[in-house]
Design a protein that fits this description.
The chain is about 45% helix and about 20% strand. By secondary structure, it is α+β, with helices and mostly antiparallel strands.
Length: about 325
């Protein structure tokens, strides 16, 4: 019986060539069109320069295969607008990204951060599969997980284990994507929901599985989300702090009965709707007084619905540990 022929392509994404060149300057210009301006210097003469770049654009991201055929220095500086995951299939490279240095190999991939200056030396036999990910695509998903926009740039550890640990499976997903395209063609890439789902899985997986400066926050225990009717009530309260509202108004805005509303606040907020309203108004009064708001303390209190100044002062002292007049005095001094 004849042996089954090897149907695998000679190189990843071989049906999608972007360019092949034996001229270093031509290769530099064409690679720069896909990634960013950079310097490219041939270092060794052991093998001739023979670059090949295959490229498949997905949705938000792009999958690349790149080799130079000889030892080269690559100096892109800061990538600025994208992250670049590099999975060596063969050969090695020394990568310096910011303060981190990594010796990349088939056992250790790398991810370049946009804000860190980068320089690399690829050995003559270095062949890499690379996933280009726009910075905006990563930061948008990070904000989804955090619940707010990140206050500092996201920075991954540059070394990305390819042969062990949690990231081994993630790297296998990228390689499997290239294999799938090679074996099945790219017709299925026309189905945008499929591609979008795949990309979302890859980007969110990278955020969850590989360490970065927000990893501790992502993996910290989170309080469960409030029931929808409680959140509607809270949103209504904060939108009407200066208005004459009562518990019935809040319940109607939350689309539940007063009894259900009070039970929801008791169970999930450990308070009542009216106590929550009172505390939110007290917070507004304190912010106004601390900011040097014009007028008397009484005027500010009345603005936020406190008609009985004696009870208002008692509530204020219990919540903030000082009298409203002390807060106002500091605010005027500032």
């Amino acid at each position: 019986m004849n042996a089954r022929p090897n149907l695998a392509p000679a190189e990843p994404l071989s049906a999608f060539p972007f360019f092949a060149s034996r001229d270093a300057e031509e290769a530099r210009q064409k690679v720069a069109r896909i990634f960013c301006p950079h310097e490219l210097r041939q270092v060794g003469t052991r093998t001739p320069f023979a670059s090949r770049h295959n490229l498949v654009r997905l949705g938000e991201t792009a999958l690349n295969y790149l080799t130079y055929g000889t030892e080269v220095d690559i100096l892109p500086g800061c990538l600025d607008t994208f992250y670049l995951v590099q999975l060596p299939l063969q050969g090695t490279a020394r990568i310096r990204c910011g303060d981190e240095e990594v010796y990349a190999s088939p056992a250790t991939a790398s991810i370049l951060n946009p804000d860190a200056p980068t320089r690399m030396r690829w050995q003559h036999d270095a062949r890499k599969l690379m996933l280009w990910i726009p910075r905006s695509a990563v930061e948008r998903r990070l904000a989804d997980h955090l619940g707010d926009a990140p206050e500092a740039p996201l920075a991954f550890d540059v070394a990305l284990p390819q042969a062990e640990g949690l990231t081994r499976t993630w790297c296998r997903m990228v390689a499997d994507l290239a294999d799938n395209i090679d074996q099945c063609g790219a017709d299925w890439l026309r189905f945008r929901p499929t591609v979008a789902s795949l990309e979302d899985c890859l980007i969110r997986g990278l955020l969850q599985l590989h360490h970065h400066n927000y990893s501790e926050r992502l993996h910290a225990p989170q309080a469960p989300a409030l029931p929808r009717h409680v959140q509607r009530a809270i949103d209504f309260i904060h939108a009407h702090l200066e208005d004459a509202i009562d518990v019935g108004d809040i319940a109607r805005a939350a689309c539940v009965s007063v009894r259900a509303l009070e039970e929801g606040f008791r169970r999930h907020c450990d308070t009542t709707p009216l106590a929550y309203l009172r505390d939110a108004r007290l917070d507004c009064v304190r912010k106004a007084l601390a900011g040097g708001a014009p007028g008397t303390v009484a005027a500010v209190a009345h603005r936020y619905g406190f008609a009985h100044l004696g009870r208002f002062s008692a509530y204020y002292r219990a919540r903030f540990g000082e009298t409203p007049s002390h807060t106002a005095q500091r605010g005027r001094l500032n």
